[in-house]
Protein 1
Amino acid sequence: MAFRPVWTRFQRQRSNLGRFGYYMFMFAASVPVVISFNTFVLELAWIRGASMYPFLNAEKDRTTREDVVINLKYNAQYALQRGMVVTFWNPLRPEAMTVKRIVGLPGDIIQTRSPYPVEKVVIPPGHIWVEGDGGERDSLDSNNYGPIATGLIIGKVTHLVWPLHRAGRVRWWEYADKIRNHAQG
């Protein structure tokens, strides 16, 4: 009679151990999938600073919160259009990710702003011209470092996730008309 309770206890422990092992295996198997998804498909990106104000960080003067966006990495360097908001490796600080709006595409003639050394520039093949929405004082952009190679592009900003009251799809095409006055192509 004493054997039966011991055996039952052993079976219970074995099933709990099996369940724990199963969960550990599932966790370990999902880690590479999550890392690959984050590296190659999409990621959440936290946006700081005033360079994209008022489009991003619209509450920059009232709060220290950051906007959170979805950064679509899959095929990010293809089908680029004026008005799109992209993330890229900063040419002046290669370890830093930067977010700006595409203003010019290859072949476009861009009317530059200070401090760029020439008044107009033709965007070479394989490059784009990017600028922040925040104006000259708040943005380090192509007016500081020139056209950027499309190989530096990390992703396209597709959705605003935080703050919740502004969450939704990034409607970049609404900015294309404003940009056409700046770029001639």
Protein 2
Amino acid sequence: MVDWAFKEWSVAVAALLNGDTVLLIRKGGIREHQGQFSLTAQQMLLLPTLEHQTAELLKPQFKALLPCHPASPTRETVSFEGWAMVTHAFLLGPGADLSPLLPYLIWNQRFLQERLNWQPHRPIYAMVLRAYRLPHPLVLPWQKSYGGCRSWINLGQSVAVEASQPALSERDYGQRVKAILAALPESATALPLKNLTVDSQVSYGTAGFTG
């Protein structure tokens, strides 16, 4: 069961569920506590959003995942195609060299530079996620609390995800993780995951993978 949702560009959600990427980076939104990102849950539904999404910050091969039509200004429902488990998380200090991580991201160098330049004194968080596609899209009523520049949404209910299919095999995911761990800057600090919100009854492998 999962009771949190994580907001991310719709392109990034599609790439995760397609197995095209396993790495996300965050710095925080204006609606976060003190404008700073925090790692709230280890398992979360992936909530696709169009907020701040722009083709100019994507690598060319991912621009095709952009929606063809703009979203309606009024929404009655939200559809979840899948969820993800954070298997590794790292704190990257201000001024960290992120360029070695570029091959594993959907975003381009301009995006990384803008992330570094925004609130330059604040750290960047890197999350490695194993994504799973739900057997059927989950449609929930749109709540006002889902909006705004925030990362985490408390769904107020628990959602069953046991019948999901992984976007990548355990072997393929493990290989991606090893490559990312090798590319991390030496100053990266691993963040503990044991105290995060997680359903202990759901186990999909590689959560304890350390490379």
